[in-house]
Amino acid sequence: MATILDNDIQVDFLADTRQKRLSWLGGGGINSSYTMNQLYSAMATLLDETTTIDDGTCFSAETPVEYTIGKIDSGDTEPWYITFDLMERITGGALRTSGWLRETDINTGIICVPVAPGGNIVAADAGNTVVGQTTGAGTLLEFIDTGKTYDYCIIRPDGVAAANDFTTATQNVSANGHFAVQWSTAASTTGDQIWANLYSLGTIDPNVHLYLYQGITSNDTSRVRLSSWNNAAGDWYGNGHINICVALKDIELSTWAIVDAGYITVLGRKYGDLYTSFEVACSNTSGGRNPIPLQSAADLDNATGIKIVTTGAFTGGPYTVGEIITGAVSGARGILTAQVANTSLTYIPIDDPVIDFHSLGAEQIDGTDSLAYADSTSSPASTGPALNTWFTSNVSPSASFTHSTYDVDDNGTDENYGIVIDCKSNPLSEVYQWIKYATRNGETTYDLDGVNGERYVGGEVYLTWAGAVTDVVAEGADVTQATSLATGMIIAFDDTNNVILLRDTRGTFNAVNVVTDNDNAGYFTPTSVSTFAPKTASPLGTFAGGTFFGARGVLLSNWLTADENAFILTPIEGGTVERPAAVNIAVSNLAGGAATSNLHDRVGVFRLTGAGGNINKAQYTCDGGESAGDATITVGGAIAQDIPGKTAGGILVIVDDPTGTGDEYKLRFASWLGLVFTLNEITGSATAGTGATTLIDSLATFTDGDDQVYRGDLVYVTGRSGWAYVKTVDSNTQLTLEGTGIVGFVDTDPYEINVPPIGITAGDKIYVPFIDKVATSDEENVSVIYVGTIHFRVKVRNTRATIKIKPFSVDGSTSGTDQSIATIRTTDTIIT
């Protein structure tokens, strides 16, 4: 036995219980490391001695950064071994092994025996003889306590004979008086290993922790985040730039094989920064020295903290926003984003894995720059975009992954998209912070197209083809192209528009060879291929200067009207599109509130026939032919761009008279396209307790989801006299109806909501108010695509609240600028 490099590395020779191995002996912590050249040079010097000249050469050097360990000399029968633990301390070069592959009766080699956790073999048992209860004998070279499904005993067998193989599942494996149980379904494995050297360069935040993913993308269980061999909870290096060696072969396979063709993804996603990532394809023969170009910086649009800890009184404060705060006991660290003196600290956790501050005054939280300090009085809690209640709508955005079409720029042609981000009526500034939160380091809760948010990268390849695919191709499957062997995962697929969007691609697709769906056996031959880089700064889209820039294939839905012109999207097919110029018409100073109450203002904004004219109640003429209860209405001319609610819906009014002066019926519609309005139809069957002015449906969800009912919705019952509007939404299962209600309405009657209660004839008219609703907040607004001067009339009324107001009405117009009208609330003291 000998030591080298300041006694940090131990060298055991074959005479030392047949070890012939290099292992880490130093105790300098995760920052202690040596270059591959230092290790090579030290071993060359050690073996160039009188007492060691007869020992086999440890290393060969193919280049100054590529080395081989194992059987180097001609005639050497036993390979040198280097521990996986030691390789976590090596930088600056790649390493491969020679002679580790065991071939029974031919080469002794090295074997890996997977064992079940729970035995008492420990790392210190390495160097001792090891035997299997039934089969196998050798020297334990390393015990790897992974903390995962398997642990590993790395063994040099006693010789080439089969008796030295460890082939018996569930047998006890014993070393130094300790034991472990060989895994029930796993025999020993063997092979030669390759360690690639990865080193990052560029400008990054020193507090960014880079993390690595490895494994085939078509099987998410094998696509794993790399951790230290002896610590499943974390990796083996610190924050900032990396210079590390990564094993490319899977030691759980019977004959160790390259994982995912040598691809490794390096990501740096510290919440609060612009993200960075890079995927490298390492050499499958030497590992190679692989540069990882990265770039990160503070993200000024992503500065909201996601954790909060309550504190006692500040001492020496205040703290400084942007400084690092540290737990004196736990060592937890975070970047301070907000503070309330003597009350709380809001922050972005840093380091990996994240450590939480202690609670209940168990530790002092120190400001690194300000030197302020305070004691914690609670455990850290989630805040910011980690909470639904932080968002304007009290619901966080969501993302879905499937092919969809939408005419974002209203040019009459739909574009193709593969990812839809539902803004849930939140400002894009909040939506962006949710996107960053959902894809940050440590985010494993959000499922983004079947993968953890922290490793979702985004689309990379767009393919087209002619005709229909053969058999079945489906979203979520993995594909492989013949000859090129390029692979990828399907985000979006559509056989009508001949569109496919792929993520996590490997290799280069072409427009010559067939592409096969490996899960469903369908196939097609591309006619065009577009390869593009994902948005590394934020994989679903970036935000700058008040504008959201979607990643390729990303579509927004349910955006706020105020954000109509605050986003630019890139369809799957490329290019950029944005909404036409829009104007915002807002009515403020309203009495609004819960949608279940009828005590709030009724507000309307109506289009006029001209300046000072009448409300235009003959905007469209019906084709006719619809029956009472139908869910769509067709008009005789294309619906104009400046009609609101194309996708978000709104209110339309049927005027039952060709002259446009007859009875009116207000219906809520879900969308419009071309000549057709699609109504927000809700159906069900009444249950016990139903009457003329009460609708009860014990199976309904009137206050939530797709079946949510609003005050003012029209209720129709086939075969009953009359119809009614909803006065109040009393609960999930009960509605109160206006006026005399529906005559003869009883339980068991089927009902429909938001459908015409009459047959529609040719010549009936339809008009669409800009706004027509009961106020739910102190301001109601609408975004209208601007195509020409708009004249409008605002009406606000409230005779139901305790404080009643006189009717408010005012005319306005816009020639392309936003309009805001404040309601003048004059109390009506006469009405009773």
Question: What do you see in this structure?
Answer:
This protein has 832 residues and is mainly beta. It has three helices and 69 strands. It has a seven-stranded antiparallel β-sheet, with no helix packed on it. A seven-stranded antiparallel β-sheet has the order 44-43-40-41-42-39-45, with no helix packed on it. Strands 5, 6, 9, 17, 20 and 26 form a six-stranded mixed β-sheet that branches. The radius of gyration is 35 Å and the shape is elongated. The chain starts with a strand and ends in a 10-residue tail after the last strand.
Summed up:
The protein is built from 3 helices and 69 strands.
Ends distance = 102 Å
Q: How are the strands ordered across the major sheet?
A: 33-32-29-30-31-28-34
Q: Which structural category fits the helices and strands? A: mainly beta
**CATH homologous superfamily descriptor of the largest domain:** Carboxypeptidase-like, regulatory domain
CATH architecture designation of the largest domain: Sandwich
Number of helices: 3
Note the overall shape.
elongated
How many separate domains make up the residues? 9
What's the number of extended β-strand segments?
Answer: 69
Low-confidence stretches: none
| Quaternary structure state of the chains depicted | single chain
Query: Residue share in helices?
Result: under 10%
Q: On the 0-100 scale, what is the average pLDDT?
A: 94
Radius of gyration: 35 Å
CATH-derived topology of the largest domain: Immunoglobulin-like
- Describe the largest sheet: 7 strands, antiparallel
Strand content: 35-45%
CATH class of the largest domain: Mainly Beta
